[in-house]
Amino acid sequence: QVQLVESGGGLVQAGGSLRLSCAASGSIFSINARGWYRQAPGKQRELVAAIASGGSTNYAGSVKGRFTISRDNAKNTLYLQMNSRKPEDTGVYYCNAQGTYRSGAYFKDFNLWGQGTQVTVSS
Fold first, then answer.
1. Running DSSP on this structure, what letter comes out for residue 1?
2. Quick one: how many helices (H) and strands (E) in the chain?
3. Spatial separation of the C-alpha atoms in residues 11 and 7, rounded to whole Å
4. Distance between CA 105 and CA 23 in Å, rounded?
5. Which of 22, 46, 56, 77 allows an S-S link to 95, with CB 3.0 to 4.6 Å?
């Protein structure tokens, strides 16, 4: 079984910085892709940033230049560094991981979401 646990959410003043973490645990064989999504009140969940197994990254146009996605493979942890925060960045942030895990003598694919962490940017 694989689990994703998020941390680092909270309140930050406009223009300030905050870092989110997402730790993966379990019998993970490989992680093919990981990303951060967010959902604001009354809006659909949207992709914020993603990183592939090879290290390539993609960002939403609204956050590019302000947010940075990174990972620590040794710790199986994903990070989202958020700088120059704006009120419109407020929402619930979710991490996502896709890959393969070991289940007994078998290997299975997974596509999991973290529990979500609230990020509030005050003006």
1. -
2. 0, 11
3. 13
4. 25
5. 22
**Token pair for residue 48?**
């914020």
Cβ-count burial 19-50 (b if 16+ within 10 Å, e if not): ebbbbbeeeeeebebbbbbbeeeeeebeebbb
**What is the signed CA dihedral for 19, 10, 117, 82, rounded to 10 degrees?**
-30
CA distance linking residue 68 with residue 49, whole number of Å: 8
Tokens 């704006």, residue located: 86
pLDDT digits (tens, 9 = 90+) for 33-81: 899 999 999 999 999 999 998 899 999 999 999 999 999 988 999 999 9
Give every CB contact of residue 97 below 8 A, 6+ residues apart in sequence: 2, 4, 22, 24, 31, 33, 34, 78, 110, 111, 112
Encoding tokens for residue 33? Answer: 């892709």
Instruction: Give residue 116's identity as a one-letter amino acid code.
Output: G
Quick one: tokens of 40? 């604001």
